[in-house]
Amino acid sequence: MIPDPGLPWVLLAVLAPLAGAVLAFVLSLAAAQIAAIVGIVTTVSVVGALRQTIEQGATAYVIGGWSPPLGIALVNDGIAAMMLGMTATVFVAAGLAASRYVQGERGVLFWVLFLGLWASLNAHFLSGDLFNLYVTLELVGLSAVALTGFTLKPAALRAALNYLYVSLGGSLLYLMGVALLYRAYGALDIATLASMFEPDLPSFTALGLMTLGLLLKSALFPLHFWLPAAHANAAAPVSALLSAVVVKAAFYLILRLWLEFAPPPGAYACLGVLGGGAVIWGSIGALRAPRLKLLIAYSTVAQLGYLFLAFPLLNEGAVALEAILLFALTHAVAKAAMFIAAGDIATAVGHDRLGQLKDPGRPLAPAKFAFAIAGVSIIGLPPTGGFVAKWLMLTGSIDAGNWLIAAVLIVGSLLAGAYVFRAVARFFVSRPAIAAIGTPVLVGGRGWEALGLATASLLLGFSSGLVEMVLRAAEPLGGSR
Amino acid sequence: MFAVAGVALFGIGCMGLLRSGTDLRRILALNVMGVGVFNVLIATAYDPAGASDPVPHALVITGIVVAVSATAFALVLARAAGRDEDAD
């Protein structure tokens, strides 16, 4: 039995944004202020939950005193705690950036969806029950789709609709798997199921269906077809949330399920091959993208590929869970920084077509540097967190004698370098679009939030031991490895 | 029997989602998939000895609520997207 955490920080991390969303919707005024207060409360509770994890290890808060299998527990182990931290970091920055974009009556709806998405994500990362996870997946999907189409531009609406089909279809595939597992074992709690799990055909069919649905949601090549349009057409802060956190929700669940239920090695190899395909295909897509935000969206396809590329290594024990998690965290902050910086630059310049993109000028220096630093992390150059994670994967693959994975890692980094510089060259080399004389009127931001996130991706490079510490302190539930 | 029918419905829904071109058909196909899953769950609850398992019922009710709201949202979104495309 996992110990009780004492102070219910995890409960607050879910309830605060949920209550905020309801309150903002009912009052339908001062939504931005409510979001600000709720944001602070949620961040504090996430920090509290992280501290609990480091001090006490994995904990489970049993809601209302009803323990599983009858009741519902919020399980906070190392992986969940880090996901909560990642979500809070990105949401705070994206929220600050969004506060400039959204105002008035529609602003209320934006903050309701924003807080709703945050609550659903936190609940998702803390759930230990397959059916609850289905519900949180749907909540995350629905609020993410609504945010995608929030601008009401025709392209965004179409992208949102296609995203919705993928999201609902993926959830139903997952739910079918859950139904089959319940048929076989009569349990939904992951920990309970793991203790009974038999590695037979029906169980793996169920696991396969669940994984397929989740792969669709986490946009692993070749199921990524919906992602570039959705992430490129949403408003910049929303794109940051989608690319940095929302796709990771499905990835997190795959990781969790596979750690618990240990599918055959062939399945790991299969995911590795698809991951490799994603790295190459996504990078080529980014090299050919005509618009800055589309480039960043394709880069997400490639970066998600790395997460799956490491799966065969994880199975062989050649790469530790730390490397994958560090990669996920760094990608989250770096990608969010890129999207927010791109949004500020596009607002200042007036468009984001790469061919005609000009230097946004000195007022946007923070955004320019944020994009460059985040780009360095995405490429995987030292001293960023991206470098440390890729280095761990590279040495792991060479130690395991898996040269194919090593080659994909290197080629992927070279391609990433090419597409990042394709954008960065535009900011630093071309002539300024905004005259340096006088004080230009800026409607958008200057990119300070993005710079904060980019700095976080740098810091992750120096504090990668922190990831290990949190994981060690709270051996994840699938702590068999 | 119910479970097999459920799996078949799920498959038909999947095919429909992959093949059909129009928004309305896709939304309907998703609903057919959902009904397939619910069928499998209800079949799981059935116990010839008497008392049926209440958990799948609870899951199906929750699932139906989610499906109805998702369908409503999809229809609104499809209408908005379709209107813009007609106007273009």
Write out key terms for the chains shown.
heterodimer; A: 481 residues; two-stranded antiparallel sheet; 74% helix; 2% strand; disordered C terminus; B: 88 residues; mainly alpha
What topology does this entry show?
The complex is a heterodimer of chains A (481) and B (88).
Chain A: H1 9-27, H2 31-56, E1 59-62, E2 73-76, H3 78-101, H4 104-126, H5 130-148, H6 154-185, H7 190-196, H8 201-217, H9 227-233, H10 236-261, H11 265-288, H12 292-309, H13 311-316, H14 321-349, H15 365-379, H16 385-399, H17 403-428, H18 448-462, H19 464-473
Antiparallel strand pairs in A: 1-2
Chain B: H1 2-19, H2 23-45, H3 54-87
- Tally of individual helices of chain A: 19
- The residue fraction in helices of chain B comes out at over 70%
Percentage of residues in strands of chain A = under 5%
Q: Roughly what percent helix of chain A?
A: over 70%
Most extensive chain interface and residues per partner: A-B, 27 and 33 residues
Structural class of chain A: mainly alpha
Radius of gyration of chain A: 21 Å
Separation of termini of chain A?
Answer: 19 Å
What is the count of DSSP helices of chain B, taking H or I runs of 4+ residues? 3
* β-strand number of chain A: 2
| SSE sequence of chain B, one letter per element | HHH
